[in-house]
Structure formats: C-alpha cells, structure tokens
Amino acid sequence: MSRTRLAGACMKKKTTSAILGSVIDMIMASAKDSHPNEFACSLRAEDGIITEVILVPGTISGNTSAILRLYMLPIDFSIVGTAHSHPSPNGNPSPADLGLFSRYGNVHLIAHYPYTRSSWKAYDRQGQFVELTVL
Ligand SMILES: [Zn+2]
Questions:
Q1: How far is the CA of 125 from the centre of ligand 1 (A)?
Q2: For residue 45, which phi and psi values (nearest 5 degrees)?
Q3: What is the whole-number distance in angstroms between the Cα of residue 1 and the centre of ligand 1?
Q4: Cα distances (Å, whole numbers) of residue 101 to 2, 110, 125
Q5: Annotated domain spans of the chain
Q6: From the CA of 98, how far away is ligand 1's center (Å)?
Q7: Torsions phi, psi of 125, nearest 5?
Q8: What is the CATH number of domain 2-134?
Q9: pLDDT 10s digit of each residue in the chain, 135 long?
C-alpha cells in the first residue's frame, strides 16, 4: 500500500481510467437535486478507478458556477479530481472550468442536463477529452 500512496503523491503521473457506475448515478442524482444550480464535488480513486464522491464543505452553488473551496479539503492524495454539473445540455468545459482543471487533480467530470447515465464527459488537466470505462 505504501507504493500506492507514493504513486498518489505524484498525481500528474497517475492515470485514472475507470469509474464505478454507482458514482455516476450519485453525481447525476446530486446534479438533479441541485438543478437549475450547479453541483460540485471531488472524486476519490483507488488503483485508477474512481470509487467515491467527496463533498467539499462550503461549496457555493450558483446557476452559473459552483465554486469548490479546495482549501477546505483534507490533504488526501487519493482525491484525483472533480465533478460538477452544467444545468444545460452543454458538457464542454468553460474557461473557468479549464482554469480549475489545470490547478487541481488529473480527471474532471462534467455532468450535464438531462443527467442520465450517458450525459457526462471527462477531461484531463489540459481540458482534453478522457475516455473512462464505466464499471
Ligand atoms: Zn463547468
């Protein structure tokens, strides 16, 4: 396990390749609850698989942006990135999203209206589309 922790500390090198379907379901349920506001959370992964949604204390939801207060997070290298929702059918990252992506984590999900199992996209730090396998 100490090897995994070391790998986690070098977040840039670690690749996240899959996500549990139950995590997608939870993000979609939360996004629906927040609609028409945005929902935001962090993502935790084990061995390259996103297994958990971490709610960030003090996240501000608004109809144009959900601001993650990343400084509220504990130092936890199993956190690999973020997820947030768009209350429109547009799953493309905004300029603000790209700014966040470049500063934090290595995988970022955007869930978009109508919040079905397939209404999401994943991006890397540079805002490039990332293929994630749903397990
Ligand atoms: Zn966004």
A1: 14
A2: -130, 150
A3: 34
A4: 27, 11, 5
A5: 2-134
A6: 8
A7: -55, -35
A8: 3.40.140.10
A9: 444 444 444 444 568 999 999 999 999 999 999 999 888 899 999 999 999 998 876 666 665 566 666 666 666 778 899 999 999 999 999 998 999 899 888 999 999 999 999 999 999 999 999 999 999
